[in-house]
Amino acid sequence: MGAAQMDRSPRTATRDYDRDMDDSDDDLALDYSPEAALYTRGADGIALSPRGPQAARRPDDDDNDDNEKGGLSVYVTIHRIRRLLIASIDEPYTLDQLRAPRMSSQVVRPLVDRLYNPNDLSTVYCLLANRVQFLRSQSEEALHHTVNIARATVCELVAARILRRFDEENPGRPGLLILANILVSGFDAFDTAPEPVRRQSRSHQWPSQSRPGHERKLIALELAILSESKILIGSLACQRVVEAVHRGDVVYTPLSLVDILPDHYHYHPVSLYDARRAPILNHRRLIVPQLRNLIELFHFAILLGLYVLTMIHCNSREYGTRRMTVYEVVFDIFAAGWVLEQFAAIIEHGWEVHAQNLWSFLDISFIFIYVLYGVVRMVELLIADDVNYALPILCIAAPVLLTRVAFALMPGNIVFIALHALMREFTRLTFIAIWCFTGFLLGLLWLLRTTLDTSSGMPSNENTPSWATIGKWLLWIWFGLDGTGLERTAEFHTVLGPALAITFAFLGNTFFLTILVAILTNTFSKIMDNASVEVQFRRAVLTFQGVKSDAIFSYPPPFNMIALVFMLPMRLILGPGAFHTINVSVIQVVNAPVLLLIGLYERRRVWARGMPSLSPRKWHHFGLSPTAEIQLVFSSEPPPDVLDTLEKLDTLDTMPHHQVGERKSAEAEGRTSVVRRRKPSNGSDVLY
């Protein structure tokens, strides 16, 4: 009788994976020897072979027994899940009700047992696809609004439990590879669908760029972000994959709909990265999220430095002429390349995903300011003379850029996460208020016009308020700054003028601001109540956005503009293989110092794992830690004879609900849970 020590803490899971990465090539081969047919070794890592679980998804392999032999196609599984969800949920249950023991045992767990198939890696993708559809249907079908929300919630709960079961039954590095294929491997929603259905459905879609058999595929992690499946993303199994992708231990070729500079000659499947087998100038490491975030932060630091130098050395007298300083020229060129990079990031995964980024609204604000500044500056250089309009426009970019520094340095801070959500709500409500309150401005303006036309004694033109003055009065009333507008509106009409102004004051200053504060307070309280889940969700968003598909991201600003001018026409002339060779060579030359530092750092990290460390975390090995004995007790699994003694003292089979209780306790407290393995009837190892 054996026992498996499972650490459900994300940090400990990361340390376990680090220890796995420390193995030599021989040990690595031993890890995969029991299932050697499922894995293949590539140039820089290990991936699932086509004979692995992901390939067993064809209906002709089922023999009417999907749970025993392979899974259904993605198309069939999607409609099967939708049919089961509609039949199972017909009441508007809330999340707390669905997670209650009764609903969990009667609805959620039976669906997990029915849909879970160890040979089918597309189930989580199909569940999230149904969740996206149910969330969209709830806005279209008013009669089933709350019911569809409940169905979408069940999809997320079942997907999280199926992913957890994959994690429990596949420990170690092979399990990490399987989890990564579930979450970041591309699936086609029309896989093995009838050809008439495929042809009719895709005839209304935009044509996608050519990819070697991977057109129109999506990954489960992207669907989880789009549907804001924070329960699934916050699960330990998903965070294990997100952490591995963030650090570059799991690598894959990302999928996107549109690329500015596409280079899809080679497709690299989801694999475990091995720095000892990778080339020293590995250009694919430029899309590792952890490294990519550092590179983008460095690019932004350069942009901010050039902006400060431009504003400091830009003399107002020289700026009004047709002369430009050197700092301004360099800033304009680099900022143009940076704006191109941000535009490529928006179309990489779409605005809906890009908007989940904390600083997306700041980037859009700077892009708008820079484009407006560039247009005005071009007009000044070509047409006007001795004018100064572009510099004041560029000055308002200072609060945007300096605020973005704080967001970029602390992306996991809950205060900035809450600020991002509050800014979205505030912007939406502000646009609604402006749209509604414009009627008061037009009403007062037209009231003034009719009064001037009908009155015998018309006031002089210099005393007649303009629409800008009336708008200023309304704005002051809105914020409670000044009551001049309330007094002057009596000149428009003795009764109707003050009535309109007082009504606006009640609706704007009292009613709207009260609603605004209530909504923002409610949003902030929800975020703070789920702070850990929100942080994990934002980390998943940053990780997903950090893996880039477009080759334009491999060129730093302003080289990306040069690549767009020269490499894009070259792609149209050369074949895919020749263009790929030239593109990779140019990327390696342009990024040679960065790639060399990355290669040396990763190899040093691998070599340093086998050497003793004198960091404070290792002091307990030298007896310098007061809790060294406690840490050493839990550092390794007890020997078999001790486990047999523990089993004789306390038999876990006699404890009621020990399986559910132990797993929930391990997930809630992040501690190590020791559970026993048994052999079921089919001969596979499962957690008991």
TrEMBL record:
Keywords: Membrane, Transmembrane, Transmembrane helix. The keyword GTP-binding does not apply. The chain crosses the membrane at residues 294-312, 358-376, 396-422, 429-448, 495-520, 558-574, 580-601. Residues 1-70, 654-688 are annotated as: Disordered. Residues 77-253 form the YVC1 N-terminal linker helical domain. InterPro entries: LHD_YVC1 (IPR056337), TRP_calcium_channel (IPR052971), YVC1_C (IPR056336). Residues 19-29 have a biased composition (Acidic residues). Residues 300-604 form the Calcium channel YVC1-like C-terminal transmembrane domain. It holds the Pfam family LHD_TRPY1. Residues 8-18, 654-670 have a biased composition (Basic and acidic residues). This is Nonselective cation channel.
